[in-house]
Amino acid sequence: MPAQLRSPRSVLRTFVRSAPVARLRQAGGPIRAEDYVEDGVYVIRADLPGVDPLRDIDVTVHKGILEIKAIRRDLLKSRRRAEISYGLFRRVMTLPAGADGDSLTTRYDSGVLEVAIALPGARPPTPIRR
């Protein structure tokens, strides 16, 4: 007797619920951010508590798109309750027209990453110490 065929939707649902894929789906998530313009500089502030800024944050600009990636590492293996998200966090934002990606500066303080990019006609932002 031939095996019973399952619908493609049923197969996909089973795959998504499988342990490794389910863990990937639950890991990390989007980065909460806000942006504004001040004195000709476009500023993005991203909420990234609990990460090592030198090791775990990557900021890139390519063709007018800014990408922020961060990893929050799970160093504690045994716990009674888990409400903190770990894993890869990512945010992609379109920069304003003419923003100079080469002028990008960053600062990380108290769990907040601040990215500054000069806009046309503005003097480049002053490098910020980490």
UniProtKB/TrEMBL annotation:
Domain of life: Bacteria
One Pfam family in the UniProt entry: HSP20
Domain SHSP: 22-130
Residue ranges of coiled coil: none
Gene3D superfamilies assigned to the protein according to its UniProt record, in alphabetical order: 2.60.40.790
InterPro entries: A-crystallin/Hsp20_dom, HSP20-like_chaperone
The family this protein is said to belong to: Belongs to the small heat shock protein (HSP20) family.
Record protein name field: Hsp20/alpha crystallin family protein
Species annotation: Actinomadura yumaensis
